[in-house]
Amino acid sequence: MIGNFVYNTPTELIFGKGVIKNLPKVLSRFGKNVLLTYGGGSIKKVGLYDDVLGLLKNFNVFELSGIEPNPKYDPSVIEGARLCKEHNIDVILAVGGGSVLDCSKAISVCAKYDGEGWDLISGKVKAKAAVPIVDILTLAATGSEYDNGCVISYTAINDKRSYGDKLMYPAVSLLDPEYTYSVSAWQTACGTADAINHVLEQFFAEPHSAFNDEIMIAALRSLMRNVKVALKNPADYDARSELMYVCSWGCNGILSNGAGHSGWPMHSIEHALSAYFDITHGAGLAIITPPWMREILSEKTMERFVTLGVSLFGFDKNLPKREIANKVIDEFYNFFKSIGIPMHLAELGVKEEKIEEMAEHILKYDDTSEEWMYVPLDKSALIRILKASM
Ligand code: NZQ
Ligand code: ZN
Fold first, then answer.
1. Is the Cβ–Cβ distance between 12 and 173 less than 8 Å?
2. Is residue 251 scored above 90 in pLDDT?
């Protein structure tokens, strides 16, 4: 059964080889003053920066560079909002991965707010307006190009917040898979692990429908197959284009329309890990996925594991259900390992002595223990998952 839902993703996707040529026409819908935002320099190395500036000769371009992975409120969001206000920016052009896009989304609302921007990001105050965003995506992973969320870290208070608002849907996302050829093996693997986790966060929910299951299993199959091809041959257009398209579906709800809400527990846990130890999002998710699955495995969740086991991995449906479930967990562990993710948090610098503090942090800022969660996780459950991930 498909339950009641509202679905509206107003973002225009322009996808394929050479789509960047549309940039002047797209930007001119919004005005002349453009804030170009980007990260630590990858767009300069691959020539995209020069291509963009070449197309923007008739615009007034201001720049915010150096946006960090796990983008920071201070300095990046604060500085971007200041530039928007000072130069009366009509449109933000975000060029990069999820971090650049997320930071630009936060900037877009903070630029239209007179108080402290963190009031918006932390949910204390509702945003009333935003500067429009156009993006050129360079890394297939988060789905930020097709959703209304952003994830911003505030290092001074060890916080990393997911923040969503309809105002932050990008107006237009230009997606050329060729710009992802230069993504490193590590980021390719972590980006795909992130997208796989987005599917799993939605798959483990109640109620669910056979149709949604089929879409999600198709997404998992495509991600798991194509990441291996892209790792072997980074310039394989077929693989990079599938990764880019499938990742874009990750977080805007389309995969789970009419289904129950899981509460995205693994993201809550990972955001604490990134807030405390600045680890790569997708790597943290990959590592905690098998321990989280072991924690939630019960009669209630069994059928979900069996569906994955039979439909995704082709296991014999006559095997004992618990055996199928355990094999599913092992498959994910081995898959993540096979694409180069170290499967222990300690290898990413996470310190065991912070586990209890992180569990308390998660409970304070997220819903993981709420009754409505698919499987609520209390403090001891969070600690078990984190310890088993070390
Ligand atoms: O900074 P530059 O020099 O651009 O280098 C980046 C960065 O070092 C590099 N990179 C990007 N495109 C490249 C490239 N290198 C070579 N060639 C290219 N074409 O990759 C590194 C990582 O980039 P980043 O943007 O941080 O990665 P990702 O796209 O995985 O974004 C991660 C962030 O998104 C948040 C995460 O929490 C994390 O902060 N998320 C956002 C979501 C959303 N808005 O819906 C949902 C996700 O669950 C996630 O939480
Ligand atoms: Zn994610």
1. yes
2. yes
Burial 152-182 (b: 16+ CB within 10 A, else e): bbbeeeebbbbbebebbbbbbbbbbbbbbeb
180-195: per-residue pLDDT in tens?
A: 999 999 999 999 999 9
Instruction: Specify the pLDDT at position 52.
Output: 98
Of 9, 281, 285, 341, the residue with max ligand 1 atoms within 8 A of its CB, to mutate for a pocket test, comes to 281
Q: Is the CB of 153 under 6 A from ligand 1?
A: no
Residues 6+ away with beta carbon under 8 Å from 136: 20, 23, 48, 52, 93, 94, 95, 96, 173, 174, 176, 179
**3-state secondary structure string across 299-341:** CCCHHHHHHHHHHHCCCCCCCCHHHHHHHHHHHHHHHHHHCCC
| Total-model pTM | 0.97
